[in-house]
Amino acid sequence: MEATQTYLRPQTIDEALTLADHYSGDFSYVAGGTDLFVNRFQGNNQPGCLIDITRIGELQNVAVENQTLKIGALVKLEQLRNFPAIAKHFPALIEAAGAVGSPMVRRTGTIGGNILCENRCTYYNQSAFVREAINYCLKSGGDICIATGGTKACFSEFVSDTAPVLISLDARLEIADTDGLHISQLEDIYTGDGIRPRNISKTAIIKAIVLPLEREFRSVFKKLSPRNSVDFTSLTSAVSLDKNGRVKIVLGGVSPKPVLLETTLHDDLASLVKEALKQCKTVENDVYSRLYRRKMIEVFLQESFEELLME
Amino acid sequence: MEHIHLTVNNKKYEVLVEPFDNLSTVLRERVELTGTKIGCEQGSCGACTVLVNDIPVLSCITPALRCDGASILTIEGVATNGCLHPLQEKFVEKGAIQCGFCTPGMVITALAFLKENPTPTIEEIKKAISGNMCRCTGYKKIIEAIAEAAPLLQEEGTEPVKPYAAAIDGKAIDETKGDQSEGYQVVGKGRPYIDARKKVTGEAQYADDFQFKNTLYCKFLRSIYPHARIKSIDTGEAEELPGLRYILTGKELTEKFGVLPISQDQTALAIDKVIYTGEIVAAVAADTEAIAVEAVKRIRVKYKQLKPCLTIQEALEPLGERDEPIHPHCREGKNIHKRASLRFGNQKKGLEEAAHRCRMHFEFDGLNHAFTEPHACTAYNDANDNLTIIASTQVPHYLHRTLSKVLNVPLDKIRVIKPYLGGGFGGKGDPFAHEIIAAHLTRKTGKPVKIRLSREEVFLTNHGRHPTELDMELGMDSEGRFQVLDADIRIDGGAFGSFGVVTTYYNGVLLQAPYKIDNLGFDACRVYTNKPPSGAMRGHGAVNPRFAMEMIIDELAHRVGIDPCELRMKNFLPANTHTVGQYRITSNGVREALQTVMEQSEWEKRYGKLPHGQGLGVACGFFISGSALPIIWNEYPQSVVHLKVDFDGRVVVYSGASDIGQGSDTMLAMIVAEVLGLNIGQIYVHAADTLMTPVDLGSYSSRVTFMAGNAAKMAAENLRQEILNSVSAKKGVQVNKLETRNRRIISKDREVDLSWQEAIDIATAHRGALTTSGYYISPQLGGDFKGAGAGLSPSYSFGAVVVEVRVNLDTGQVSVEKLWGAHDCGKALNPLAVEGQLEGSWHMGMGQALSESMKYHDGLIVNPNLLDYKIPTAMDIPEMHTNIIESCDPEGPFGAKECGEGALHPVVPAIANAVFDAVGVRITKLPISPEAILEGVKEREKMATVLND
Question: How large is the ipTM?
Fold first, then answer.
């Protein structure tokens, strides 16, 4: 039987941080929970204490402040489209949010939760029985990566659909923690280590995602999956062009962290693709093969550039 | 434990919950509203959808404590005061409900959606329900129901408008479908299932919905190795757990079983060794599920690993001196289970004389049925102390026999009840280890024992489509007539026999139609491997070779430069003939089926002429309508139906046939109503309870409409005769002057004009209730050679499909845009149900063609869930054009034959053939991978360059 279970529902960030401090060894925050509860069911994350932050009102807002748009971390994926400022300035974010999971997942899942979505792998996202029968991969506490046979690195995939778009828009995070408020570029929270894919402290709470409003972005979002609904990504690409001609390319689903390239629309695409491939640590741990996903990077980038140039 | 307050369906509840309890658990087990279904436990299938404060949520991944104070709507709260909500009415009326297991979640999702978007487009509806998986309907009728409900909700608000009964017997009948009914009153008119209301309100009880006092919960310890000797099982630590009631290991149940008498190769639990990862090694029964789970964790098993055999190739290699065969009875010093071979005519000569020959190699991944309801059962002792099991089974009769054999309990002390069943497709046709274990534990503990498999355990139990490799060669003469077919087929049976001997034969024998081929032969071989067992799945055994043959036909047509439809037309067998293997073909609508889909798709105008990347593909199909030979050889009929009518005038139908969502209960009621001239509302079906109902061999091999339908018809005719005899004697009118019509018994001259009730008063006078019986036994069929019995059927179904695909030339991804299908079901007794069967078959075939595959790592399935095993969602299905072809079978009830499986066969090759039309690439490995398409396209371009140089 599981150890003592505690489910807490703080009303404020301060209250949540205090609770987190108290249960520091053995807790998880839970927002929508669409990722966390599946992982819990499978035995991949079974803390004794869950701190449900969904009642914290200040995390639910969307506001324009000083040439920026602040999206509260608890805004649900499905709700993003209801905010005119998002629809006007960042339609690709709405598209990306609409590509997450199923309609029900999007109604419960939050934007903050999606950027913190746990990395995935064929050999990790399994029940305790299957992980034991596989003989435990690195991320499950074993000695060998089942996907590669290596012993050093875990290549679980970064699968957030919204984070690549947000990163391409130069999103920053407002993070509240026991030691105060921090600001971080979104891409900086991802480590590239498949076992511990994010470096924000365990007690930290993402308050808001902050997007610059004055850059006049145009973005193209693409996602590769076998079906038109429900599936996690096998390759996500987000390409954003700002008014100064700066292009930021972000790839998800092909590496333990988002792959970033900064360029202009007039750079040589072939060398960009080459550079992207160099950065991608793609392995055989997905419904599609490593080679196919790598090949699709070129296709997605080509199409994205064409779409941006066409407009 | 914490207290929470919930308002569920406007009723207030105060419930004690564990901190991490899910809302679904609380609703089902504390609030006791079991209409909310659990299909996957991890938020992938949508069956558990409920509204929390008007928002649809997946209750299986929603913490109950979060809902403290919330207002919740479950399916039980959608209808009010006995009145269906207009949306529910539309689900009923449009045939959007088959097995009904996804229905509660689907209705709740649609309800919330229509509130937000009262005037949706079809695309918006598809998107809205794309997180609710349905395996029966192909979504078409669900989408129609939602679309038609939308304006009603606007006009009339969301207030319920009609009492339940109105939806059942009122306007639900589609008048346009009844035109060809030759004067029938009931038959031939599309109508909702008689149990649709129960399903749409959440009242229908599935195997996991039953609660008994003092129930014990059973959980399994499963093998973590594909092949290993069990050295020891230490249960000591588990035994110390308070609340633990029993630990069972294999040694207690040594009697072997299997669905086929010739394949008794399975024990309920592994005894000395395990032969696949996931095999049951120990079972525990405890007061709660949590205790059972903990007890399983505490059991220690020591194994000595043996060399596993995981692929067809490995199984066909001679075993080394130190290698152990999977079963002692493996053949030829290899892990071979069964070889089947038949030869008709002279292949060698045929091949020599063939002007055009094409030989191709094909590979197929294994598939799972992916029915929405995981297996479940509860065993208990009933009021008469029968050892009783309520089980999600397609075949109560085989489970009845198996329990008797394995547990050594007399047949007359066992009762098997099939409750509402959430889809089967062949996957609930075998007797299963968990069912035997539940019954055994009830005997040992004296208490009810409940088992529900997780979705992962469903995949580990499997019995799905065999992974297959095959080589096939087809030759035709210069006139385009098929001369010869030769096939070499290897199928991967996994750990046990199951239906596999039949599968082995079906892979070859069902190639002998719908085309005439005089020189036909095949070698088929089934191997054992250390993987979950394969078995029967919709289209049993014939789907993969059909794919091969239809693709080769397409290729031959292409090479010779003849239209592939024309080539097929040239080679069709006629009606009333025999195949080369002496199948008796009676009714045959294949030509009309193909003609229909050609016309609708504007084939001649468009085939080969669509822009690069778009294509049309065609294929035909053929299947049995009930196996003519029973699995267990005896002289008992294949189906028996009893009817009873008592003083109250209601007619009760007793049948062992299993309604698994395909609508067989409704079919029985319609047939009886038709014969007796009654309304369907006067017929009550009591089915699939081995204490109460006579034997029917179950829902497999597409046999129920033909066999149980004929038995019901005979029983009804006997009842009619008895009633007419009584009326005749009483009124002094000759029997042959009397008829039953419009709920009356009348003579042609109107001298006798009695209401049904008046006639029943006469018929029951001085004797009481009338009971009659009817049965079905197949005629003697087939040749007298070894293997002649395989594939024999009193009738065969035929069909054709054209699909239009679009191939993304950059990604290689295929989307099926349109589908035109036609299926010859003899006579559609219930056209609405037939359409549903066809559309569901096409959906399932699409899954096999494009996305479904059981993936293994060292014998362990690594996609055992509905997220990674990819059945098509509502956003993946094409526009479907559904056509019923009626060839009026001479022996089927009112001319009917099967429609539940045969429609699947043509869709899979039609998609692959359409890909060829679109991009010129032959994909011979399923599922079709975008990667293979891109490689093929590249190869072609390379070839073209070489040629141009």
Answer: 0.97
